[in-house]
């Protein structure tokens, strides 16, 4: 049996789909799974033990008709028993539509007209259900179509990784460490730099035993500039903002004592690795996209307008309302236990 997964982006969404690989492979041991993924996130799936083939899509293809045509022609050379749209957007719907598959499956309330490309439209999903549960439920609906028994119940399958993903040597590590992740794609998700620095000041007593690594996207120039200044001010802080490859970031998170983060991709990596996490939420819902590990603390705004799910806002009061002392106390508690 051959199955095609379509989940291109973003990083956090891709990581939240990883339990699906385990569920598919453990339920159907002989299945061959191909995955269509955006180039920006492909590194995390290279040589994954449960994947037969990684099919890389790039937004640059949209600027070159010949490259886009080649992508679809190559995709059409493959034949699948079932293609599953875990993305639920127009771009994933188009890919589902072009591929050769007996069954093309997705939820009927997927967005941007993507259900137009399915020949099996599943009943609408609950929008307040956590994304990990939604993807697992979609997979279990596929099992029903294939008349395959599902013996997992409500358990979230363990995430498996590429065999070489933890072989990266991080030579800058010389003692236990905490990771701070201030970077996110939405401006509304950001905790103010002044709050991060206040937290760093309050963690001075931890500096003897722990380093604090600040991570972030290479494209976030404002974060990189700020982190370099903070690194010079505090002996226990080291800036890694924009300096790590994706596999290196996974390796770094795996050995962290605690990750303090806004709602962003590395938060989900920490969850998948079962690393204790403190997640800061304002405009988004932890019930939908929060951490899903075993030792997590969620600190969220108490403002009535939160969550609003807006990428733009006239003010940032929801994130500003999260108190640094509360974060520090949660951090100390996780370090003790």
List the helices and strands and how they pair.
Elements: E1 2-6, H1 11-27, E2 32-38, E3 53-57, H2 65-76, E4 79-85, H3 90-98, E5 100-107, E6 120-122, H4 131-146, E7 177-181, H5 193-202, E8 211-214, H6 221-233, E9 237-239, H7 246-254, E10 258-262, H8 265-272, E11 277-281, H9 286-289, E12 296-300, H10 317-320, H11 324-336
Parallel strand pairs: 1-2, 1-4, 2-3, 4-5, 5-6, 7-8, 7-10, 8-9, 10-11, 11-12
Structure description:
The protein is of the alpha/beta class. It has two domains: 145 residues, Rossmann fold; 160 residues, 3-Layer(aba) Sandwich (Rossmann fold). Helices cover 34% and strands 18% of the residues. The chain is built from eleven helices and twelve strands. The strands form two sheets. Strands 3-2-1-4-5-6 form a six-stranded parallel sheet, with helices on both faces. Strand 11, helix 9 and strand 12 form a beta-alpha-beta unit. The protein is globular. The protein starts with a strand and ends with a helix. The model has no long low-confidence stretch (mean pLDDT 94).
């Amino acid at each position: 049996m051959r199955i095609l997964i379509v989940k291109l982006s973003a990083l956090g969404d891709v990581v939240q789909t990883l339990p699906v690989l385990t569920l598919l492979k453990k339920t159907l041991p002989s299945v061959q799974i191909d995955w269509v993924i955006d180039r920006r996130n492909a590194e995390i799936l290279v040589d994954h033990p449960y994947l037969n083939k990684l099919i890389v899509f790039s937004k640059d293809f949209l600027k070159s008709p010949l490259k886009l045509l080649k992508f679809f022609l190559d995709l059409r050379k493959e034949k699948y028993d079932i293609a599953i749209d875990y993305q639920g957007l127009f771009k994933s719907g188009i890919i589902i539509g072009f591929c050769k598959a007996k069954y093309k499956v997705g939820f009927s309330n997927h967005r941007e007209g993507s259900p137009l490309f399915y020949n099996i439209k599943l009943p609408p999903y609950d929008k307040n259900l956590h994304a990990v549960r939604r993807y697992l439920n979609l997979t279990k609906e596929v099992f029903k179509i294939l008349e395959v028994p599902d013996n997992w119940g409500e358990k979230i399958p363990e995430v498996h990784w590429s065999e070489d993903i933890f072989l990266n040597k991080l030579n800058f590590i010389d003692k236990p460490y905490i990771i701070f992740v201030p970077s996110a794609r939405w401006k509304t998700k950001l905790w103010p730099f002044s709050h991060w620095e206040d937290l760093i000041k309050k963690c001075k007593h931890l500096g003897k035993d722990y380093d604090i690594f600040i991570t972030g996207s290479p494209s976030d120039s404002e974060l990189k500039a700020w982190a370099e200044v903070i690194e010079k001010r505090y002996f226990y802080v080291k800036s890694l903002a924009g300096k790590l490859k994706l596999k290196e970031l996974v390796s770094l998170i795996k050995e962290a004592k605690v990750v303090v983060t806004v709602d962003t991709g590395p938060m989900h990596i920490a969850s998948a690795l079962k690393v204790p996490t403190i997640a800061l939420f304002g405009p988004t819902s932890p019930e939908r996209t929060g951490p899903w590990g075993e030792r997590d603390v969620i600190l969220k705004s108490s403002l009535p307008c939160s969550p609003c799910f807006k990428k733009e806002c006239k003010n940032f009061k929801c994130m500003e309302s999260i108190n640094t002392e509360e974060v520090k106390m949660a951090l100390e508690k996780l370090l003790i236990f």
